[in-house]
């Protein structure tokens, strides 16, 4: 048994149908034979299945790890046993056929000769601003299927992390969430399974209407007195705005005393007024303090799409930024829902 086979046994077909399908397909077709790929995605045990598929495709893969997650010795050792090079992010430089990126962290130190695939909203914004790209840049974040991970997967992971790290029961706690994008939506959904006391702060009128329609308390960020009251009344406060230092710039530190605080964003949203030990996971994205930040059933379709986007870029070589092809997006969501016994209507009610 190879090392990668061991991890595929840890995540069987019922939890990772897309990865098992892709491995079999890529072993047969070798679609990326001879290509070089730089792979910058949080390196966890689940990610090894994604990398295994790329190796099976015939590509030469160089793996690194984003700056916001600690290197896993277990995963690096597993890569070594499979003959795959791991290079720390700060040392990864040079030209590759494809960059598979997360947070656009490869944008300044690596070059792509055939294409780039970006996984996150933060990274998509940076890549979309490039005016002189000579290769296709395919965004997985600009798809509906990304909500399977960002909304459902991250929401569930943040819920697990807050309950495990705080060691407190969440039932009937007063939860305050800053931000109602994909991440905030998922966080609210999972916490609402345990408590009816959910308040959400956002600045966009259309989001405030959705918050109210879900049965949560909607608070406009432009009404500071209402936000202050909500902070003081909350038991648990979670940030999901994507804006660095937003709480330090906007509110008084003393209002947060005695609360369970957690950051769900890639940036430190609590900011300079808060010490690391005041916020769960030292202010880093709280779910990444877990061995499995996001469970495999939510990652599986995203990993599949991130790899599949290479074929999207090869089939449509128009330079510049675009979303993964809509046909792929719709097909992946439909297949995922059928496999995991969700209905499309249920997903529509959440995101």
From TrEMBL:
Q: Which GO terms describe its molecular function?
A: adenosylhomocysteinase activity
- SUPFAM superfamilies, alphabetically? Formate/glycerate dehydrogenase catalytic domain-like, NAD(P)-binding Rossmann-fold domains
Q: What is the recorded name of this protein?
A: Adenosylhomocysteinase
Q: Which UniProt keywords apply?
A: NAD, One-carbon metabolism
Biological process GO terms, please? Answer: one-carbon metabolic process; S-adenosylmethionine cycle
- Family stated for the protein in its record: Belongs to the adenosylhomocysteinase family.
**S-adenosyl-L-homocysteine hydrolase NAD binding domain spans which residues?**
150-313
Q: Which organism is it from?
A: Kangiella geojedonensis
Matching entries from Pfam families are given as: AdoHcyase_NAD
Out of the domains of life, which is the source? Bacteria
Q: Which cofactor does it need?
A: NAD(+)
One GO CC term of this entry? cytosol
């Amino acid at each position: 048994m190879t090392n990668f086979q061991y991890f595929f046994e840890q995540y069987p077909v019922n939890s990772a149908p897309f990865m098992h399908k892709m491995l079999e397909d890529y072993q047969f077709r070798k679609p990326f034979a001879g290509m070089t790929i730089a792979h910058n995605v949080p390196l966890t045990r689940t990610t090894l299945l994604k990398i295994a598929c790329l190796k099976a495709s015939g590509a030469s893969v160089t793996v690194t790890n984003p700056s916001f997650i600690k290197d896993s010795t277990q995963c690096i050792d597993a890569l070594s046993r499979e003959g795959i090079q791991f290079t720390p992010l700060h040392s990864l430089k040079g030209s590759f056929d494809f960059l598979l990126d997360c947070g656009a962290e490869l944008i300044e130190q690596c070059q792509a000769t055939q294409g780039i695939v970006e996984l996150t909203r933060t990274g998509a914004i940076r890549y979309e601003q490039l005016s002189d790209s000579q290769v296709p840049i395919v965004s997985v974040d600009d798809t509906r299927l990304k909500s399977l991970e960002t909304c459902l997967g991250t929401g569930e992971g943040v819920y697990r992390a807050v309950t495990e790290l705080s060691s407190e029961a969440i039932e009937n706690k007063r939860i305050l969430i800053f931000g109602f994008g994909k991440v905030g939506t998922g966080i609210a959904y999972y916490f609402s399974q345990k408590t009816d006391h959910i308040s959400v702060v956002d600045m966009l009128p259309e989001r405030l209407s959705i918050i109210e329609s879900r049965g949560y308390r909607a608070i406009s960020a432009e009404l500071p007195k209402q936000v202050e009251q909500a902070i003081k009344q909350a038991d648990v406060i979670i940030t999901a705005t994507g804006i660095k230092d937003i709480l330090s710039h906007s509110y008084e530190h003393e209002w947060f005393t005695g609360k369970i605080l957690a950051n769900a964003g890639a940036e430190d949203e609590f900011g300079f007024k808060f010490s690391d030990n005041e916020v769960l996971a030292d202010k880093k994205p709280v779910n990444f303090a877990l061995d499995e930040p996001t469970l495999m059933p939510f990652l599986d379709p995203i990993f599949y799409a991130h790899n599949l986007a290479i074929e999207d870029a090869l089939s449509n070589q128009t330079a510049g930024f675009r979303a993964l092809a809509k046909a792929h997006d719709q097909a992946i969501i439909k297949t995922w829902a059928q496999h995991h016994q969700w209905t499309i209507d249920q997903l529509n009610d959440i995101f």
